[in-house]
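If you are new to this repository, start here. Below is one unmodified record pulled from the training split, so you can see the exact layout before writing a loader.
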Amino acid sequence: MPADPHQSPPGSASFAVDATLLPQPWPPEALRAARVAARLAGSDHPYVSLKAAVTLDGRLATAGGESRWITGETARRHGHGLRACHDGILVGIGTVLADDPQLTARLERPAPSPTRIVLDSRCRIDPAARCLTDDGVGRIVVAGSGADAARMQALRARGVHVLQGTAVRPAPAEFLPALRACGIRRLLIEGGAAVHANIIALGQPDELFLYQAGKIIGGPDARGWCDELGVRRLADAPALRLSQPRLVGEDVLLHGVFLAAF
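And here is the target side for that same chain:
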């Protein structure tokens, strides 16, 4: 994936995790800098964490699309601390169109906000979307080969760094090294379900943070946090080494490391 010829990469200075920024409890596994460093040394990709907030039956939203809020305030604040531990936060265009998220780290103490990244194969994002607000934080849109040139130029005119891939849909094998080249060493992916599934199916994620609320939505039309993976045998299911579940306010945090990554 070639660099944007119109702009210099936004960059994002990597920093050591400051545990004092994080609401407790916090999985100590997430703070093991040696594991992250080892992964980065052996790959041209960022260290990739997945994050989702779901019900007990794994739903992101109701069939009508309502998702605010599945988890409580403490878990949401904890999630903002997680964002502050990463250089970049990535979502798909579906999440932006549905929720118009800010994608910032909002904590009681000042904390660095990660570079905001949107996967948008057709460059459908509104230049006025909240995640593209020019607040001094890096903004990246990853577009596909068929993205509209005028729309990409409109984003560049607003200071957004546009990476255009060689495939119609941006492929992780292409955009992850490109993001690493832009200074993204630790990447947090918050969905949606199709993005999570694509990353997992290709064996790219390193760890998972799943915030689980004591609620049940049910039904076939309520969206889960991960789309079809094509798993037909349990032996082929991606596996994780789980930490002890933690209560975060009224919710539970499940944390695991993908075994295929190490």
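Two things worth knowing about this chain: Helices lie at 33-41, 73-84, 93-99, 149-157, 172-181, 193-201. Confidence is low (pLDDT under 50) at residues 3-27.
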